[in-house]
């Protein structure tokens, strides 16, 4: 039996990316196994998705802690109890402390709804439309101490249509998120993806600054 890559997923909301990850690992031959889903909100629907899939769930209310450092220290304790090789942020709406990020360096992935380095932060679809961009998309990246700034792993690109609204664009980008996040998790679980000295590497080769790009 080949050892599987244990994964912990952090969420704050509905967990649609979590669902895509869960759906991608059906069958015994997948190299990843989601050991637990942790949320900072007890009402996050993603917890229900995890329970339905038979995955452990934990809730850690950030409001119960004096500051970010105290919350992140407690979060590390909860995560490390599962001994994961990979921690995946799937709509976890917390800015993480440098200490947390350093603790999981090289094994912490995030997905962001823009073609990074464009549009870090919020309202990415609105900003892409206001800028008149012809292409938009989403990015999976390793997390570093710079917000939405770690080395890119993979991006999905979609054309911006003339009649797009922030809502229609968000919907189409979501579809691509559900495509590339399971892909990145699989690469990592197979030992193909790693964070090297100079950035993300796939199959021992340095990825370009934009990561692997997939056009729809």
UniProtKB/TrEMBL annotation:
SUPFAM superfamilies associated with the record: Formyltransferase
Q: Which residues form a coiled coil?
A: none
- The protein's site described by Raises pKa of active site His is found at 148
- Pathway, per UniProt? Purine metabolism; IMP biosynthesis via de novo pathway; N(2)-formyl-N(1)-(5-phospho-D-ribosyl)glycinamide from N(1)-(5-phospho-D-ribosyl)glycinamide (10-formyl THF route): step 1/1
HAMAP family this protein is in? PurN
- Please name one Pfam family that this protein belongs to: Formyl_trans_N
The question of whether Ribonucleoprotein is a record keyword is answered with: no
Return the protein name: Phosphoribosylglycinamide formyltransferase
User: Catalytic residues?
Assistant: 112
Keyword list (alphabetical) reads:
Purine biosynthesis, Transferase
> Could you say which protein family the record assigns here?
Belongs to the GART family.
Q: Which residues bind (6R)-10-formyltetrahydrofolate?
A: 68, 93-96, 110
**Record-annotated Formyl transferase N-terminal domain positions:** 7-184
């Amino acid at each position: 039996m080949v050892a599987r890559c244990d994964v912990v997923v952090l969420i704050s909301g509905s967990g649609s990316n979590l669902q895509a990850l869960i759906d991608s690992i059906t069958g015994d031959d997948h190299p990843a196994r989601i050991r637990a889903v942790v949320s900072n909100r007890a009402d996050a629907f993603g917890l229900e998705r995890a329970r339905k899939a038979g995955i452990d769930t934990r809730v850690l209310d950030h409001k119960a802690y004096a500051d970010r450092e105290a919350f992140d220290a407690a979060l590390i304790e909860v995560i490390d109890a599962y001994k994961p090789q990979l921690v995946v942020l799937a709509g976890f709406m917390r800015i993480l402390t440098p200490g947390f990020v350093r603790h999981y360096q090289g094994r912490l992935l995030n997905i962001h709804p823009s073609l990074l380095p464009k549009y870090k932060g919020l309202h990415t679809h609105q900003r892409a439309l206001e800028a008149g961009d012809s292409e938009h998309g989403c990015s999976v990246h390793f997390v570093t101490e710079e917000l939405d700034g770690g080395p890119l792993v993979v991006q999905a690109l979609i054309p911006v249509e003339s009649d797009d609204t922030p809502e229609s664009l968000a919907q189409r980008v979501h579809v691509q998120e559900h495509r590339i996040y399971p892909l990145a998790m699989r690469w990592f679980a197979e030992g193909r993806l790693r964070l090297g000295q100079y950035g993300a590497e796939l199959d021992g080769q340095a990825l370009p600054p934009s990561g692997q790009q997939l056009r729809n």
